[in-house]
Amino acid sequence: MDEQKIQSIFREAGIEKEIKCPEAFLISEKYGISKTDISRFCNENGIKIRACQLGCFK
């Protein structure tokens, strides 16, 4: 997982405390980051994933 890359992307998008599932999917596709890595980053940094569509993020 490239934590610095995800952190930079989140910072640019203004994501600090929560992210909605569709946003996470878009970031995953746009930047080629796995959903698992995004989920892990969020869990490790206290960022809540809201409005989960398929239960991919826990």
List keywords for this structure.
58 residues; mainly alpha; two-stranded parallel sheet; 3 helices; 55% helix; globular
Q: Any idea what the shape is?
A: globular
Structural class: mainly alpha
Largest sheet: 2 strands, parallel
Mean pLDDT: 90
* Helix fraction by DSSP (H/I, runs of at least 4): 55-70%
Order of helices and strands: HEHHE
Radius of gyration: 10 Å
Strand order, sheet with most strands = 1-2
Number of strands: 2
- The unreliable regions are none
- How many H/I helical runs? 3
Structural domain count: 1
- From the N-terminal CA to the C-terminal CA, the straight-line distance is 17 Å
Strand content: 5-15%
Explain how this protein is built.
The structure is a single chain. The chain is mainly alpha-helical and 58 residues long. The chain has one domain (3-50). The chain contains three helices and two strands. The protein has a two-stranded parallel ribbon. The longest helix is centred in the first third of the chain and has 11 residues, at 3-13. The two termini are 17 Å apart. The mean pLDDT is 90.
What topology emerges from the helices and strands here?
Layout: H1 3-13, E1 18-20, H2 21-31, H3 35-44, E2 48-50
Parallel strand pairs: 1-2
Q: What does this entry show, briefly?
A:
The chain has 58 residues and is mainly α. It is 55% helix and 10% strand.
